[in-house]
Amino acid sequence: MDSATGLLNVIDVEATCWAGEPPPGAVSEIIEIGLTVVDLDTGERVARHRILVRPARSAVSAFCTELTGLTQAEVDTGVGFSEACRLLAAEHRAGSRPWASWGDYDRHQFTRQCLATGTEYPFGSRHTNAKLVFTEAHGLRKRPGMAQALRIAGLPLEGRHHRGEDDAWNIAALILGLAANGAWPGASAP
User: Fold this and answer.
1) d(Cα 123, Cα 129) in Å, to the nearest integer?
2) How many independent structural domains does the chain possess?
3) Please, which residues have CB within 8 angstroms of residue 127's CB and are 6 or more apart in sequence?
4) What are the phi and psi torsion angles at 9 (to 5°)?
C-alpha cells in the first residue's frame, strides 16, 4: 500500500490503434491515461483522473476514434508522454504507491514507450494484475475482459468502455469487490 495508507492507483490506458497493421512509421502510443485512486482501508474510490497524451509518432485513426471516442483534435490538446509520466510521479505518487491494471497490457505499454522515448518509468515495482486476481478468485478457467468481469460480479459498466478514465473507475469497482471478499492481495474480508 501507499507507505502510510491503503491507497492504490488503478491505471487504464488507451493507445493509438488501427483495424489492421499500423501505417508505415507509426507505432502504438498512449493517448489517454485513466487513473482511479482506491482506498482499500475504507473500501472507496476516492479520486478519478484523466491525462490526455499527445502522440508523437502516430495519429488517431478512424478505428481508434470509433473504439475509444477519442479524436486527434482532442488528444492534440494533451501533454507529451514524458510530461504525462512526470505528472504520474509528481501528482499521483506513481513511484511509491502500488498500482493495478486489468491484465499486463498497460504495464507493458508503459515499459515499451518509456524505453522507446528515453523517458523514466513512472511506476514502482508493486503492480498487481487485477484480471489474474479476479480469475483466480472466481475459479474461472479463462481470464475475462473487464466488461465480462463486471457482469460476473454483478456490477454495472459505468461510462464508456475503452475510455481510460471510465475503465479505471470500473476496474477499481472490481478491485473493491475482491478486497471486500478478502481476495485482493493484502486485504482481509471484514
Assistant:
1) 14
2) 1
3) 98, 99, 100, 101, 107
4) -90, 125
DSSP state of 109: H
Residue 44 domain flag: yes
Q: Residue 105 sits in which domain range?
A: 7-180
CB 128 within 8 A of CB 98: yes
The DSSP line for 38-101 is EETTTTEEEEEEEEEB--SS----HHHHHHH---HHHHTTSB-HHHHHHHHHHHH-TTTS-EEE
Q: Is residue 144 in a domain? A: yes
- Of 89, 46, 68, 87, nearest to 175 by C-alpha is 46
Secondary structure of residue 8 in the 3-state scheme: strand
Q: What is the pLDDT of residue 3?
A: 43
Low-confidence ranges of the chain (pLDDT < 50): 1-4
104: CATH:
3.30.420.10
Pairing of strands 99-101, 127-129: parallel
Return the C-alpha cell found at 2. 501507499
Q: Is 189 a member of any domain?
A: no
User: Sheet of 44-52: strands edge to edge?
Assistant: 44-52, 30-39, 7-15, 99-101, 127-129
Express each pLDDT in 132-179 by its tens digit.
999 999 999 999 999 999 999 999 999 999 999 999 999 999 999 999
